[in-house]
Prior knowledge:
Blueprint: H1 6-9, E1 12-17, H2 23-32, E2 36-41, H3 47-50, E3 56-60, E4 63-67, H4 70-73, H5 82-85, E5 86-88, H6 95-112, E6 117-121, H7 127-139, E7 143-147, E8 152-155, H8 162-172, E9 181-187, E10 196-199, E11 203-208, H9 215-229, H10 251-254, E12 264-270, H11 280-285, E13 292-299, E14 309-317, E15 320-328, E16 332-338, H12 343-354, H13 364-377, E17 381-385, E18 390-395, H14 404-408, H15 415-443, E19 445-448, H16 474-482, H17 484-495, E20 504-511, H18 514-541, H19 547-560, H20 568-582, H21 585-599, E21 603-610, E22 615-617, H22 624-638, E23 643-647, H23 655-670, E24 676-680, H24 684-699, E25 714-720, E26 727-730, H25 750-755
Parallel strand pairs: 1-2, 1-6, 2-5, 6-7, 11-24, 11-25, 19-23, 23-24
Antiparallel strand pairs: 3-4, 7-8, 9-10, 9-12, 12-13, 13-14, 14-15, 15-16, 16-17, 17-18, 20-21, 21-22, 25-26
Helix pairs in contact: 6-7, 12-15, 13-15, 16-22, 17-22, 23-24
Amino acid sequence: MTRKTNTDMNEKILLVTVGASPAPIVTAIQNLQPDRVIFFCNEKYQDQIIGEGLPCQIIKGKIVINSPNIPTITRLGNRFDPTRDLKIIQNSDDLTECYHLAGASIRHIQESNPECQIYADYTGGTKTMSLGLALAALENGISLQVNSPVSLTTVTHSRLPLPFLDALSKKFLAPKKANSITAFHVSNFKAFADMQYIPIRPLTLIYGANSSGKSSVIHSLLLANHAIKSNGELDIYRTEAGGDSVDLGGFGQYVHRRDRRRQVEWAVDIDPKQLNLPDPGLGDLLQSVNKLTVGVGIGTRRSGNGRVRVRSFFIEADGSTVLNMSSRPRGRLQLDSLDYKHPIVSQLIEAIVQTQTFALNVTAEVRDEIEQVVNELVPEITARVSRLLPTKIKVGEDGDQPNLERSLQLGQGDLADTVRLVFPYRLSELIGAIADTIERELGRLQYLGPFRTYPPRHFAFSRQQDTNWYAGGGYAWDILLNNGEVRGKVNAWLGDKERMKSPYELVVRHLLPDSQLAAELYPRIAKGFHDLTTKLIFHAAGFGGDIQEQIERLRGDLEAAGIDLESLDTALPEIELLVSMLTDVDSLSEEWVEQMSAAGDPISDLVLIDKRTKTPVSHRDIGIGVSQVIPILVSCYGLSNGLVAIEQPEIHLHPKLQAELGDVFIESALGEQKNVFLLETHSEHLLLRIMRRMRETFEGRLPKGMPPVRPEDVCVLFVEPDAKGSIVREMPLNKRGELVKAWPGGFFEEEMDEIF
Length: 756
């Protein structure tokens, strides 16, 4: 019997988190010597894995060594496949995302290669990435290792009792508020002239007639998202998230009425309590603030010529302006005004003053001097925009960054000079934290266009990520291939008798290339026949001189049983019966499959199985509605804490399924996953289901397992065309799920007109 080799059984796969320093990753790989390495990192550090040239800096003492990427340093060679082994984390501070991505990767490896040895090294990356990988590894029985300065220490999951692990997961992965952005504002963009206020709730539905300008709402978010992802590109044609579905046509096309002399104004409202501030003291400044509004102006020079860039920046707190900046030569923004009397600014200065031990009793004269110092600082403070918003500010003509260490060296020196040095540093921290929060929130925007990708018949052979990978929904099929939990939920929805009632089920098959199959199968068949012949000879030899007598007796027994041995065709089933008696065919074939799978690199394919006939079919053999709804379901079931914009989710679905889709959105937004949805739709049935769940919540009749739906969870917007520019109107709902005011222009009244 052929057995698996030790190499097959002991294949080692290492999972690592990647951060700023490549050194611990290199050490972990060199010590373990794995057969394969899977890297988890964010976009900022992916060059360390796939970058060309010398993207890595390894520090040894005082020496900095510029080195090639990590797979090259560690000589992984063809053992590293970037399309398979590089996992990008969109938000490396989102524990839920890190945990789910690591868990899905581990389970996929375990399913496709159950006898391999998996290790997880959590030394690199952010603390959140490390914790996410560690929790996922422990939950799935994976050995953990951490790279210490002395040795590589391995800790197995058995050291953490499972009840403790469950409690740990619930504590760190508990549902949290998904979105710190509560609204955004936009003007001079496409259909919008005047500033429009657009609230964002967990369920935001956008309605309007054709060509009313409702797509401008989502497109303005795609503009901001692209600027963040592309390091500040604003003269945008095709956006990164929008793929082939959205072509903004460049600034001259998306600015209102194509007037290049206008500035597109774009702003967001954020909850200050959700800011990730580097200093808790800064958080104290915002305790009394309910809403921060942060905005930019995008445009060219006043003449309409020149480069498209951020031309202005402002911060408001509860409607009062805190600061304004505007563009200067060479792409700089300069501080134009700072409200010294505003509570945020005054408290920021007061905090600096109170840190000085000698400043217990500050005279009015000293305070006047401090105010004068701050006012003199205003025109000296500048900033550059790296993506969409300014992050670090600079002071003076030389553009020096504020230096806190230098200011602290003053000790009990002149208070005004201390404020001059410390205030820009603290202001830079505040602006940077605000910008980082907004860019992080907008950076996780995921868009699904109105025309979802219709994948090729054989998905396994066409999984390259094209420009339309997300906008067209291609990513959804990849998630279904690799995430059994999401696949199970989608199958349940498709087969539910109250929903899709589909007879089809998504199944993953593991395929071997025909060349590999031919190479592996022939020697095994030859050996099988050899073993069979040996058994036959062995048994025949045992008969000795009586063999002829035994053969005649066997012939007689077979003929007595009605078996005709004269015909070869008739004899074959009997020979097969004889072979099966001497050989356990089922066990042998099962063994062959395991050996060939372990020896090669199976290709995973996603197919639909007709449950009635157990026949595999392609999605191209069934109705288009299934292929169009699957990306919607995957977005709802497969994402957590996401910001998801979808155009026409109801496309190719009949009215009842549109209503059922409403429940899917409710569960994804208001359940444990805490996603935020912006849905541009024409579906009345989708809205009616949400209104029904609000009424049932109010009356206490909500179906079991359905999250409660309240007015603060839902925002219905109506985009109305106007001669001066489209207008966004909010259509509030009361606790019973009823519209507080009538639809403008009798929208949705066509049904009543047809009946009466």
